[in-house]
């Protein structure tokens, strides 16, 4: 798994994002490219903002017990995997705004560095290691950039 805390990896991701155009078609799935960019921002919103509510105790237990491993391991996501409700983007978005927002989140993550994420609380999964944060962020973004051919 590539390391998002490594500047060349972040630069590579940003380069891939910059290859996208408002009309770039998906190779699979139902999202448009602008919706995909907004969808990818949700993981960072959950890490850096209070925009999304914390799941209740039962839901958090279920997420930790049954979902966390698949999100933070190094196994790539399969195509058309189910999406958690908070990540579903149904309305069209401004492509340039979402692209800039995602790049800003990547740069912010890099500037904070690995140590910031060691033991950082995940909204859904509780405290996670920096490696788990890395895997979650990189795997998700890589999956969707591949979805759009970059």
Supply the helix-strand structural class. mainly alpha
Q: Tell me the radius of gyration.
A: 15 Å
Shape, per Cα inertia axes: globular
Compute the separation of the termini in Å: 17 Å
What keywords describe this structure?
mainly alpha; 150 residues; globular
How would you describe this structure to a colleague?
This protein has a two-stranded antiparallel sheet. The mean pLDDT is 95. Helix 2 (33-48) runs parallel beside helix 4. It has helices at 7-18, 33-48, 57-72, 95-112, 114-117, 130-147; strands at residues 121-122, 126-127. The protein is built from six helices and two strands. Strand 1 and strand 2 form a beta hairpin. It is mostly helical and 150 residues long.
Briefly characterize the structure.
With 150 residues, the protein is mainly alpha-helical.
Topology:
Elements: H1 7-18, H2 33-48, H3 57-72, H4 95-112, H5 114-117, E1 121-122, E2 126-127, H6 130-147
Antiparallel strand pairs: 1-2
Helix pairs in contact: 1-4, 2-4, 2-6
